[in-house]
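Reopening: Agmatine deiminase still failing for me.
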Amino acid sequence: MTSKRVLPAEWAPQSAVMLTWPHPGTDWARIMADVEPVFMTIARHVLRFEHLLISCEFVARLQDLGRELNDYAEANGLPGRVVTVPAPANDTWARDHGPITVNTDDGLAVLDFSFNAWGGKFPWEKDNALNQHLANAGVFGKHPLQSIDFVLEGGSIESDGAGTVLTTSECMLTPSRNPSIDRAAIEQLLSEILGADRILWLNHGYLAGDDTDSHIDTLARFCAHDHICYVTCPEVADEHYSALAAMEEELQEFRQKNGNPYKLTALPWPDAIYDEDGERLPATYANFLIINGAVLLPVYNVPQDQDAIRIMADIFPDREIVPINCRPLIYQHGSLHCVTMQIPAGVVTL
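Support: Ran it again with your exact input. Result attached.
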């Protein structure tokens, strides 16, 4: 008999957060001086609550990071410590190339789905092999890494921890990911591998400048089993207005397993941010990370940041809201949740 599986909600207890550290061989090279401090801020705040798993292709930099951050944690009496693993990487989007961990009747299972850079948009071979480097280093303890022959990015799925998975059809059904699998087959696979007993599909919603084909973690997030927060655009003239209004209608039609509608909370719409070429960048407050005792919230140095902080404090009254300026991250078309991957409690032990 197959063991019962469930994909934990992000608010479930965690052992560590994973970061794939930027290096000069990535597309961050031009703005390393801007982006490294963002990673460092994320790292230091994570250590206030739990352990940190860092990989980096540049071994000397990785060794310095380990010493610096562990000294910082020890000097400040923090509960977290850092484990470092040298590993090649094409980029830094740990949310999408990192492991996805599920609970089973037989214990925790650490899953290594295939990663192909959002349908082959960029080089991906190093990123796709990164989880095996972590496993070879022993960071997953007694939990063997299980390879899954299916392209799935962590940013494309949201779980309520009780069998419901929220996703987008734009991403999940893109032929460049899994060309031979249709929607019904994907639902079956997510049921078998992640324990999803129902899939909520959003067919609308996007962000300009997003390379992921509308990852759910840029648009709508579970805050509790009965609560979803989501991006909304109040400006009729904005290119996002129609798609996000249609997404809001879909969310209003969704029902919990008990038949009740979800509690819905709209997130602020940040002022438009553009790069030097005039391309609009995907700033979103939905790209937050829930960790033990806190929520790390991306902010962008725009007036709407304060409203976002206030709303998140209302959503998560029992967690500290930690705003982190992630404006440099969106210049490579991602944000805070995109560069992190939580590892559930019981996997990483120090």
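The chain has a mean pLDDT of 96. If you still see a failure, please send the error message rather than a screenshot.
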